[in-house]
Amino acid sequence: MILSNEKRYRWFAGILALMLSAAAICYSQKRNGGEATAKSDSRAFLSQPLTVGWRYNSDLTLNLTPASDQDRIYLPLAGGIIISLKAGDGTLNWRSEFGGELSASPVADDRSVYVASETGKPESGIRRATGALRALGKEGGVTQWMHTLAMPLQGSLTLANGKLFGGSSDGTLYAFDSRTGVVRWSFIYSAPFNSQPVVAGARVYAGSEDGNLVVLDEQTGKLLWRYRTRGPVRGPAAIKDGIVYFGSADNYLYAVNSTNGSLLWRKRTGAGVQAVVSAGEDLLVASLDNYVYKFSLRGKRLWKRQMPGRISAQPLITELEALFTPLSSSAGVVLELRDGRQVNSLPVGEEITTSASPIAVGRVVLLTTEHGLLAFSQPREVAPLKTN
Q: pLDDT digit string (tens) for 19-33?
């Protein structure tokens, strides 16, 4: 068929219009998809490619979680040592050494780093103080105040409302003034504390070694109620909408009324439960049976995922993901909160043996290993590995 020049022109014009339209649609889809991906990236940081940007080498790391602020990490080490590192590149800011051994995970605010230590074991038949709590200046690690304690604080320290909370091995739960170190109140209990106190709704929640969740008035230290389980309660509680969720070494996840401690429900797992965290409108629960569970706030199990080892550390939670550090494995594991699917792995190059929890400072994820601290971040064009 022979086309006239006019018809040939119209035919080519039509084809060109179709091609331009298709190109515009593809560009729009690509642009919109790129924007959606960028938005997703900001909410799903842990699932993006992460590589080791720097490492701090040390054979003195402990089963204690580092403290952090907006741009620094405070790493506890054996021998009563704590060091301050820049989160961006691992540069050493200062090193403070005060003897003894650190006994609880430290915590930091905009002024100080708070560290608990044990100065030695008491000799038989001799009574002497073996615990100490210090506030170190963030700029140079110089001691600002120190408080001597009969026995060392254990578990993790907690900061809230100008007070510093911690439980000791002799069964005393303390509230200190964070500026001066003065004891605001102390609650003497019959069993040791080895947990992380949680402050919410003018109450302090702390697990004890005799299986009780102890709840005190934040201002006075008065006992409000306690709930007894059949195993030590060591992980921090999660409080949401007037309900307290916590785990016990008796293999159960508990939900109790925050006002009076009455049981609402409990769910059994395959082993002791230490990690219970709020994940949006649900709960993320890690059990020593090598599984991670997701429960609704009413106790319905939503999913269950097996991990390569036992989980004794608290996970790092973002809006969409959770990072776990299973013992005896060689990598941190990132699960998607929606369905528990594994979406990333952070290899550490050795077997994980510490129960120190992963933390994040800005866009840097930090994992404690037996031989130091690893800082993971999104790779740059040229990012040579830096070591101390």
A: 433 343 343 333 333
> Is 12 a member of any domain?
no
What's the CATH number where 265 sits? Answer: 2.40.10.480
pLDDT tens digits for range 252-293: 999 999 999 999 999 999 999 989 999 999 999 999 999 999
The answer to whether residue 202 sits within a structural domain is no
List of residues 6+ apart from 99 with CB closer than 8 A? 79, 80, 117, 119
Q: Spell out the residues 6+ positions from residue 194 whose beta carbon is closer than 8 angstroms to its own.
A: 154, 155, 167, 169, 209, 232, 234
For residue 4, pLDDT beyond 70 = no
3-state secondary structure of 286: strand
Domain limits at 285? 232-306
Q: Where among 286, 306, 326 does a domain terminate?
A: 306
Identify whether residues 385 and 333 lie together within a single domain.
yes
pTM: 0.85
Please spell the DSSP secondary structure of 92-115, one letter per residue. Answer: EEEEEE-SSEE-SB-EE-SSEEEE
